[in-house]
Amino acid sequence: MTTETYSSNAVERSRLNNRLRAMVTQENLITLVVALIVAGAVIVPLVVLFVSSFKVLDPAGWDTTWGFGNYVTMFTDRIIPKAFVNTLIISSGSTILATFLGVSLAWINARTNCPGRSYLEPYNLIPFFLSPFVGAIAWHNLGEPQTGLLNNLAREVFGIEGAIINVDNIWGVIWVTGIFFAPLVYLFVVGSLRRMDPSLEDSARTTGAGLFRTTMTVTLPLVMPGILSGAIIVFVTSAGEFGVPFKLSAPYGWETLTTQIFSKAVGDDANHHMGAAMSMALGIITVFLIWVQQRYIAPRSFTTVTGKGFRPNVLDLGPWRWVAFGYNIFFIMVAVVLPIVCLIIVSLHPVWTGKIVLADITTINYVKTLMWWHPEAISAATNGIGNSLILAFGGASISMVLALVISYMIHRTKGFGVRMLDFLSMVPIGFPGIVLAMGVLVTYIQTPIYATLWILMLAYITRFFPYGQRNISSIMLAISEELDQSSRMAGASWFTTLRRITIPLLKPGLFAGWILLFIIFLRELSISIILFTTGTETLSVGVYYLTNFENEPLTSALSMAQTVMLLIAIYAFRRLAGREALTA
Amino acid sequence: MSTNNNVMVSIDHLYKSYGPEMAVKDFNIEIEQGEFVTLLGPSGCGKTTTLRCVAGLERPEAGEIRIGETTVVAPEKEIFLYPEHRNIGMVFQSYAVWPHMTVFDNVAYGLRVRRASSNEIKTKTMQTLELVGLDHLADRFATKLSGGQRQRVALARAICYQPEVILFDEPLSNLDAKLREQMRDEIVRLQKEVGITSIFVTHDQSEALVMSDRVVVMDKAVIQQVGDPQEIYANPANSFVANFIGVTSLLEGKLDGRDGDICSVDVSMGQGAEPLRLRAIGAEGATPGDTVNVSLRPEDVTLHLERPQGTDHGNLIEGNVIDTIYLGSFLEGRVRVGPHEIGIQIDHFENLVRDQTVYLSFQPEHSLCLAN
Questions:
Q1: Strand pairing partners for B343?
Q2: Residue A127 domain flag
Q3: Which residues of B touch A (CB under 8 A)?
Q4: What is the mean pLDDT of the segment spanning A36-53?
Q5: Residues 6+ apart with CB under 8 A from A56
Q6: Is A357 among the domain residues?
Q7: Residue A405: partners with Cβ closer than 8 Å, 6 or more residues away
Q8: Which of A50, A304, A490, B277 has the smallest CB count inside 10 Å?
Q9: DSSP B304
């Protein structure tokens, strides 16, 4: 008996040993280390932000005490409650506008015989890549009551008194945000519209439902999860948008949460703890909405694709197709063509008074903003291009390597911390850039990396690596694991397999993800505006500086330079990624 | 044109093309009330296009289709009824069961669109669900169903509001073999029970033969033959039909002469010293010297290991075994005869070896001579 007990104990012990030893594998160790690094980058700033929001600065601005004072101030302050309401109005309004534009354009391009729809589609998507801040600057120059180009044209050509439009208010913010985020909704909807099994609608028709009824009871409900997802993303992105309200509404009395956070982060009455509290408030709203979208709406998406290569039902609009065409062109005009044309015109004038004066045309604004060697160059502007290119190249490259490692771990290994990694690469999506930047600011302000490009790089990567990670993950899910395994069967090592099979298969996705991040970093504003200092200005910060301290022509010139760089990147993106790379 | 009052669907001179490619060419048929007609052919033959023209999902260029008393499409008269005005039901290959609705809502859709009273909707929908054996799943969402169950929902949805015609577009081809047979029998049972006129599109000849009252064989946009299953199988109109329906060996040869119904064909194709003559029926209209095909079903060929005695074997030819395939209940073999391969069925388990000399016999009335 005793020997038996002893031996069964020994067996148990050795089993336990084996299990322990089995857990300490290279795979597990590496996964754990990466998970911890990512956790450090993502979680620490948010925790410090949370803690910091409970420190109340005394009126003299020297000492802090613990308490809920900052949260109380948010309700008692003269401006913040209004800013809160304004944020909700702007987000709701631009969500409605963007959803309407995005769904209708997607439907026109995917399901009707609107002329030239396949040529128009790329132009419908351009605003997605451009900077909404620059869009706001352009629309300010188009729709300002006195100096707006459209208002002046209306006065001169049609002899109208006063102004036909005024975008310097909350409605202007909704207008610009709405048209610039419409492509987001478009991308969420167009795939399921285009690939929907046509017999789903055909069977409604043969069962006796007319076109309208079929659309209302079958088509729309089937794409509804996509519409809702797109709408939530637009709401969250608008709530975190800084540039548009900063340019169009804040100077005229309509503050938002983001412009308020900004004023607490920098400037004379800076109060980081108050900024942290407001960031928490904004972050809680956005995280909650993203959680709802990920948890309840995304999984509801209906599988409407049957894999049979059917072309979707295309609706013959008859003469109405020209209305659809005109509508599509109208969108491209207001979202792409007019803003760019306006920037060019304004940037060629020494001062902008609202009128085109051919005699005054000059390139001095481009000289001052781009030619850093020139004596008249404005360093805040000229620093931007170099800094932004470093950040975009470096940030996109590091992010994609990180994204590759994380995706590989999530989808190809079963190491420790895989679930944590999966969760961690979701978290940053829930927080607007300005909130995360506030967290990074309060965390690193007393370390050496503050006031260097590194802090910007760190914040960029932390906030945006999930985009690259999702890009790679979607492809990795589509590539059968058997392709990897076959290589191992054929005698290749793990590393050779990675180098010869996995990475080559992922290459298109890696490039597409890289360029997408490059574009995002090149126009990034809401993180940079919190974390920049003299010398580390980025392109968008340069634009901010010019619009705040210089004049509109100089602002337009740098905006134009940024837009041209973005357009080149967009062209490269389309060449590499193909037309539906974004829908994944 | 017949004036039969029982005609439920008539298609006259239907033409449809996609760009320069002709999809359906001069399609004519009259389908009687309660009849089950199958359109059979390889993919791309125009069978689905024809069906979609009947449904109103495609617009033909010319011709006329009538359902009951109503002309539903006639391009020359500028008549085109939308699918929802044709009072038809349709079952699709991909089931097309709406994933955002319950089984009940899917099936009740047609009645709701027709503004039936809520009482009627409830009773009729439940009756139909009972008919297909899904009444216990009425509240379930369509995404939680198996393939077979989804197809039953699609079927129930198409018959619930008692349309005049039901159209099937390869409804069984997404199901696995066992389930396919089961659903096939169920569709036939239901069709007879409800007595609804049906047009069924398939590329599976065994489905067509088992289910239909009449089969329409199509190839390259044109009807090749219309007839009941026996007729199609026993009396194919041309080599395409013979080859497509069942397993057939086609032996190309030259018509030698004719003696009453029986004609004599030389299938040696110029190989060998002397002509290899077979006697077969058919080949009406062909004259001696024409190239013809002799069509031979494996089950009509008798295998002999030794040269048989007597003369009542009809055609008797010598050949060499190429190979045999074991198929469970019988063997399938191929025998080389001159320039041809002949497929045979062997139900007794002979031990055949490659190149072994064997003898094949078959009656002239079982071998059909088809003009090209």
A1: B334
A2: yes
A3: 55-57, 82-84, 86-90, 92-94, 96, 98-100, 109-110, 113-114, 143, 154, 157-158, 161, 167, 169
A4: 88
A5: A64, A65, A66, A67, A69, A70, A273
A6: yes
A7: A34
A8: A490
A9: E
How many A-B residue pairs are in contact by the CB < 8 A criterion?
77
- The b-or-e profile of A454-492 (16+ CB within 10 A means b, else e) is bbbbbbbbbbbbbbbbbbbbebbeebeeeebeebeeeeb
* Domain membership flag for residue A9: no
Give tens-digit pLDDT for A142-163. Answer: 988 888 889 888 888 888 888 8
In chain A, residues with a C-beta closer than 8 Å to the C-beta of B114 are: 208
Average pLDDT over chain A, rounded to an integer:
85
Structural domains of chain A, count: 1
Q: Count the alpha carbons within 13 Å of A143 in the hemisphere toward its beta carbon.
A: 22
Q: Are A147 and A233 in contact (CB under 8 A)?
A: no
Cα within 13 Å of Cα(A547), Cβ side:
27
C-alpha–C-alpha distance, residues A582 and A517, integer Å: 12
| Cα gap A450→A453, rounded to integer Å | 8
Q: How far is A168 from A245, CA to CA, in rounded Å?
A: 9
Assigned token pair, A523? 């126009």
Q: Which domain holds residue A241?
A: 26-583
Pair type for strands B214-219 and B36-40: parallel
Give the Cα separation of B142 and B153 in Å (integer). Answer: 8
A203 to chain B nearest CA, in Å? 7
Over residues B194-237, the pLDDT tens digits come to: 889 999 999 988 889 889 999 999 999 999 999 999 988 888 88
* Domains of chain B: residue spans and CATH: 7-241 (3.40.50.300), 247-371 (2.40.50.100)
Alpha helices in A24-130 (DSSP H): 26-52, 69-76, 80-111, 117-129
Find which of A199, A203, A228 to mutate to test the B interface (most B CBs within 10 Å of its CB). Answer: A203
Q: Closest-CA residue in chain B for A196?
A: B96
CB < 8 Å to A209, chain B: 84, 109, 113
Q: Is residue A270 in a domain?
A: yes
What is the rounded CA–CA span in Å between residue A39 and residue A46? 11
In three-state secondary structure terms, B367 is strand
Which positions in chain B touch A306 (Cβ < 8 Å)?
Answer: 94
Place of tokens 């900063």: A246
Contact A417, A425 (CB under 8 A): no
Question: Taking 80 as the threshold, does the pLDDT of residue A517 lie above it?
Answer: yes
Q: Which of B88, B94, B114 sits opposite A206 (nearest CB)?
A: B88
CA distance B229 to B245: 10
CATH code at A425? Answer: 1.10.3720.10
Contact at 8 Å (CB) between A260 and A79? yes
Residue A274 has which token pair? 């108050």
The 3-state DSSP class for residue B70 equals strand
